[in-house]
What does this fold into?
Amino acid sequence: MKIFIVATYPAMEQPIKLLIKKYKNIEIKYGIGKLEEGLKLAQNAINNDFDAIISRGGTARLLKRHLEVPIIDAKPSGNDLLKSILIAKNKKLKTAIISYTNITDGATEIIELLDLDFKIHYIKDGMDLTSLLIKLKSLGYELILGDSLAVEIASDLGFQTVLFQSSYDTIKNNIDYAIMILNQINKISIIDKIKSEFFTNELSDYCILLDNKIIYYKFNNFGKLPISFGKIINIKFNYESNTNQNLKKNLFRVDNFNIEITHVFLDGKTYYLLKFTEEKIENQYDGVYEFKLKSNLLPVKKSSAMKSIFSKIEDSIRLKKAIIMIKNNNTTLSEILNQIECSSQKYNLYIDMKEFNFSDFFKLNTKKYTFILFNNIIDPQDILKISSLQQNSTSIFIILLDSECLLTKTSIDLDYFYIPNTKDRKEDLIQVFENHINYYHDNKGFSALKVQKDIFDKNVNLLDSNLDYLIEVLIKTLAEVKSSTISYDDFMSNYKDNTSIGLDIVTENKSLEEIEKEYIKKYLVREEYNQSKVADILKVSRSTLWRKIKKYNL
It folds into this structure.
């Protein structure tokens, strides 16, 4: 394996020399040159059978346009950018940044977070940097922070300069990345050969073993290896034993998974293919589903309401009592479930009591589930049945109720508690927002990193909205803003006051019952399913409201 580094400024030479000594089993060489000079160095390296090229900035962009081998862009890391920006900041001079976009990725967010008045100019192909720098000088700029090309010209024009440098660690990471890419290319070549031997059609979930190591895998349905690595090696051992005894067995059952194993000889080595399928529990019983939680919805527990509910949950778990929750928003419910979930177990169980025959509960293998979630209970007596089973179960039973109506119509004496509404969680809300922002920044590439801190102080009416709706508004806003901070105005541009009731109900071509259903539903949403409040507003008794909720299945 041979890697060539095109250094675009002389200071890169010292860390490269140190790294060459570190990678003794890989041939690493380098040369110093920018743009066309760098291209000549890279072309000469390819002619000498080098497998990959590392460079940065405009030179890396140029190499990618002209060369076919892997080009690794050694752009500065976040720490590199921060260090250079702080050096420029400490000089306390009027500063402009001039650089290629692939050098300054992330610099905008750092500058905004540090609240610095640094103007960024991006270098484009054919751009006259000298003219730009002369103009900046006439505007009173004294310091140029930037790429090696911009810094070189700026220095000749009498500017003070700070270079965005790629540190020892950054260059090392890029060498490691180049090694990984080359190994992957080599592996893909081998895998293609193995696939041609093994596969007659496309597989969803499988892994390939060589020398008791997984060298390749693909998991569409499971997300990760569905059984332990130790069990895989045990299957391989049993398969080898069967093969030596001329037996045909290549199907194994482990936990809830079927594993089919085959092998092939290729280039003097034996490769093993294991294919995984699972018999889903939802195919066995109506209304029973396995599900996984989103780990990003971590609980925020600053408010007294959340502290109280987690204290009750801990007491219920300790006393082996079923947890009965009156649900009014899914955002807080997800936080609570994530707190309860044991990270070592993959699945939880959801039981829809509208569809499920409760007598089948004793046929389920419930031991592997962290918690079992019961929803849509129709018969209040089922609450008592579920609670009585909790004492002898290793799982945690959670009963979700959409309103109080089931409990008010029964004499069953059970503890239950409301999931806190938006008003009760005011101290949590900024952190809840930022948890979602972080998730969507990492997974969707949205620009925002935080939200304006006083957003709920500027408009206290936001606290009257359902938290699920506020999160919907936040996600829509995230997709639109390009800055690192979501401002109050950004958020309010997508927010509609969902506390106003009835004004947007379309009555044309609707029956009186349809209008009544929509009207009741809007008040229930506004008051977060507090039936006492809704009954007072509508000037009906709670029993009348309860009957209408049952009638309209709200």
